[in-house]
Amino acid sequence: MGRAPLILIVDEHENIRSILQKLIQALGYQSLLAPDSFTAVQLLEQHTADLVLLDGMMTDNAIMHVITAVRSQSTPAGIIMMTDAEHLHDIAAFIKAGADDFLLKPFNATLFKSRIMHALGSIRHSYEIKHLQEMLNDYRLREQQSEMDHSAFYQTLAHDLNNILTGILMRSELLLLKEQPVHTSKGLQDIMEAAEQISTLIHERKKSPIS
Predict the structure, then answer these.
(1) Mean pLDDT over all residues of the chain?
(2) Residues 93-121: pLDDT tens digits?
(3) What pTM, to 2 d.p., does this model score?
(4) Which fold does the domain 6-107 belong to in CATH?
(5) Cross-strand pairs, 53
């Protein structure tokens, strides 16, 4: 990520959103605010968030709405659930659905900073792996294309050489139909033999192209 990480804060309470935004800005990160799941999904359609702080005390449908939207992004993004002790039993289901971590309210600034940095580090690692995988796939495609180009070139070359050799053989046979000096006949026969050997070699290589 060349830019500063973008963190989406999804919480129904304005004062919580404001406090979290200030903490995030103090860390040097960018932020987006959403009071509900519908606003959060709209923002995710317009921006690529690196991390989502999601209020775990919203309705299950609202939480799943946001998790699904995050996981549909083309680039990796983390999800940290924020909840209190009363809703802690719900967290396991949300983590199974796609959330990465949770923060138990109330939490202090030190713990908040630690979890945020850890999550962003994991996302950065996932992004780098994804980038390397894309580079590897691109290399494989280029390699396959190169092999195809090489094969096509060899087939064309073999075709052209076969045409030339066929012409040599036919002309030599026509010349041998006429009476020729012994040394000329011997030379023509040597040429025909060499041409046939080259033709055989080309035929064998066409079955198993040079790598």
Answers:
(1) 80
(2) 888 888 888 888 888 888 888 888 888 88
(3) 0.60
(4) Rossmann fold (3.40.50)
(5) 9, 80
